[in-house]
Amino acid sequence: MEIGPGFGVLTRELARISKKVVSVEIDRELIPILSEKLSGLTNVKVINEDILRIDIAELVATEFSDLPVYVCANLPYYITTPIIMKLLEGRYGFVSITLMVQKEVAERLCAKSGEPAYGAITAPVNYYAKVTRLFTVKAGSFSPAPKVDSAVIKLDLYKEPPVYAENEELLFTVIKSAFSQRRKTLVNSLHSVFNSIFTKDEICDIMIQIGLNSLIRGEDLDISQFADISNRILKKLHKNGGIK
């Protein structure tokens, strides 16, 4: 499945090595151009839709049946995160997702906990997939040239998450709160979200239980530590009658 085929240059290469290619293109004006560029390729289908609005589960079931599905995309910088998260959160059974994104975004996605580039999107992506940076694409490779370089990354999706989170929604709430105000300690960030349920001391106790300093910040935690915290918060919520 290709997202944003543009003029079909990559599409032709994908068709050469794949049994079937389904390209989703939002720009209606590109459809006749693609029809001409891809004429004669019987294993290519172009769909004029917005990837953020289309029913991906239905598309996969209809177009690919039992075939393994790989995603390729050159993502517009301003909607990179929404598209990535939609592809991951839907659990559509993709084998991998290969993307060209802004170099800065690639650095965030591939960052390790404690590194400056590690951010709010890094931990959630690590819950769904193993991220590998493949290579950099200089701005001069494009016409017209953008103001920034790009990078190609590959997300190999896990069949099962690498960590156990009893409540995924709570896990992502914890992660989001940890990065909502980066200058705050994790304890203060979590307390601003759960202050109606826990005292700050109780949140500190959770940090101590898993061997974390009460002054630690969210960017210093990996996905396993976030999962541990969310599971312990959930346990306390159950005990206090705060969640069913």
Outline the structure in words.
There is one protein chain. This protein is of the alpha/beta class and 244 residues long. The chain has two domains: 2-157, Vaccinia Virus protein VP39 (Rossmann fold), CATH 3.40.50; 168-240, Helicase, Ruva Protein, domain 3, CATH 1.10.8.100. The chain is 41% helix and 16% strand. It has ten helices and seven strands. The chain has helices at residues 9-17, 31-37, 56-64, 80-89, 103-110, 122-128, 168-180, 186-194, 200-209, 223-240; strands at residues 2-3, 21-24, 44-47, 70-74, 96-102, 129-137, 150-157. Helix 4 links the parallel strand 4 (70-74) and strand 5 (96-102). Helix 7 (168-180) crosses helix 8. The chain is elongated and about 65 Å long. The chain starts with a strand and ends with a helix.
Name the descriptors.
244 residues, seven-stranded mixed beta sheet, 2 domains, 10 helices, Rossmann fold, Helicase, Ruva Protein, domain 3
H/E topology pattern:
EHEHEHEHEHHEEHHHH
DSSP, total strands: 7
- State the secondary-structure class: alpha/beta
Q: What is the average of the pLDDT values?
A: 93
Model regions low in confidence, pLDDT < 50 over at least 5 residues: none
CATH fold type of the largest domain: Rossmann fold
Write the layout of secondary structure elements.
Layout: E1 2-3, H1 9-17, E2 21-24, H2 31-37, E3 44-47, H3 56-64, E4 70-74, H4 80-89, E5 96-102, H5 103-110, H6 122-128, E6 129-137, E7 150-157, H7 168-180, H8 186-194, H9 200-209, H10 223-240
Parallel strand pairs: 1-2, 1-4, 2-3, 4-5
Antiparallel strand pairs: 5-7, 6-7
